[in-house]
Design brief:
Blueprint: E1 2-9, E2 15-22, H1 25-34, E3 38-45, H2 47-53, H3 60-73, H4 78-88, H5 92-106, H6 111-116, H7 124-136, H8 139-189, H9 202-235, H10 239-251, H11 255-277, H12 281-291, H13 295-309, H14 314-318, H15 326-338, H16 341-397
Helix pairs in contact: 2-5, 3-8, 4-5, 7-8, 7-11, 8-9, 8-11, 8-16, 9-16, 10-11, 10-13, 11-12, 11-16, 12-13, 15-16
Length: 398
């Protein structure tokens, strides 16, 4: 069975386009004839390429997962349910995704196999949890847990983005003010200094040299900045580079606490879902570490997975890692002893997610005054250096 993109006309000459599954072109022609259409053009379609062309918003995945959980819990065959959802879906990307999943399921694939073909839409922890849920017969419960996990993950990221807006705007405004003073205001004021610049104060000469460099060679800084961004972009996928950068960020006094809280919250939330789905400890550690979004944290969980493979308990494997919070290790130990690790991890995830806004508030409560004070000192130095010769001139005139 292949997919065909076709154009046809009806009895009134109106053109219609569509995508239909059929064994060959003759079968497609017969199907369109039964619908009162005359085939004009046809070409074989790659369904996965078509899905990739239609982007699926990140926020749609949680809602889609909740709807799939409802279908499974209600006993609706997943193929028919997905086809029904695709017919009623308004967003083109989600509609193409649902139709593709239904097509794979009708072709004999399991849901986890259909998801494996779409790693750009369904992250690793999602696919692992669904595979485990199918194996354990608890797919509805796993999908419910995934929906809640995705919603909390999106809310966490949204809070972090909101907290970043004000400091970024403030930093951009202050940088613009400094550039305006040095590159536009100072050249006009310097006309008052006269020709003998050697007699100017050292602060003023330094400022004039800086202004001249920026006006004449400022493009070099732009080129350097673009080159730095290009190199960083190329190296962003290198595991060693990511581990080094993330490890150094973890070590920063205030920012490190924020990043640690975010990584730990995402790890605990994902681990709770995977453990509830029945994943083994090795998969749980590796996939949850990847879901943390931090390469240093992932390296720690991979080392912990090696200890688990040698026979260590989950909590014992995490304990030697310095980037893993001590409270998380204690919570995992309690969950292992009580036999209720999944709910214990879920409670830990909620606690860390609640910590993130507080840590962000503390960090930006320090960052914003620091930006203001630093920028104030820089602007004051610029103004003082620019005005010192004028003050000297007034003294001589007096």
């Amino acid at each position: 069975m292949s997919s065909w993109e076709w154009t046809a006309v009806d009895a009134r000459g109106r053109r219609e386009q569509g995508l239909t599954d059929a064994p060959d072109e003759q079968a497609l022609d017969r199907e369109l004839e039964r619908r009162g259409l005359v085939l004009v053009t046809v070409r074989r379609s790659d369904p996965l390429a078509r899905e990739r062309a239609e982007r699926v918003p990140a926020g749609e995945l949680a809602g889609l997962t909740a709807r799939m959980a409802t279908l499974v819990r209600a006993g609706v065959p997943l193929v028919e349910g997905l086809e029904g959802l695709a017919e009623r879906e308004e967003h083109r990307g989600v509609r193409a995704l649902l139709a593709g999943l239904a097509r794979d399921l009708r072709g004999g694939a399991s849901l986890s196999q259909a998801l494996e073909k779409r790693p750009a839409v369904f992250p690793t922890e999602y696919r692992a949890a669904v595979h485990a849920g199918e194996s354990s017969g608890a797919l509805a419960r796993v999908l419910d847990g995934l929906a809640a996990h995705l919603e909390s993950k999106a809310a966490l990221w949204h809070r972090a983005q909101q907290a970043l807006v004000q400091p970024l705007v403030l930093a951009a405004a202050l940088l613009g003010l400094v550039v305006l003073l040095v590159c536009f205001l100072l050249p006009r004021v310097s006309a008052l200094y006269g020709a003998n610049q050697a007699a100017l104060p050292v602060e003023t000469r330094t400022l004039l040299a800086l202004s001249g460099f920026l006006r004449e060679h400022g493009y070099l800084l732009v080129v350097f900045a673009l080159a730095f961004v290009a190199v960083a972009w190329r190296l962003r996928g290198e595991p060693r580079v990511r581990r080094f950068v993330h490890g150094r960020l973890f070590a920063l006094p205030r920012l490190g606490r924020v990043l640690r809280a975010i990584a730990t919250a995402r790890f605990a939330s994902t681990a709770s879902v995977l453990h509830g789905a029945g994943c083994d400890a090795l998969t749980l550690l590796t996939v949850s570490g990847e879901a943390s979004g931090n390469a240093a944290f992932l390296a720690a969980t991979e080392r912990a997975a090696e200890r688990v493979a040698r026979g260590a308990l989950f909590s014992e494997a995490l304990s030697p890692e310095p980037c893993v919070d001590r409270l998380l290790v204690q919570v995992v130990a309690v969950g292992e002893k009580s036999g209720a690790l999944a709910p214990t991890l879920a409670e830990a995830a909620r606690r860390y997610e609640a910590d993130v806004p507080r840590e962000l508030a503390r960090f930006f409560g320090f960052l914003e005054p620091a930006l203001l004070v630093t920028s104030g000192l820089v602007v004051a130095w610029i103004l003082l250096a620019a005005l010192l010769p004028i003050f000297d001139l007034y003294e001589h005139l007096a």
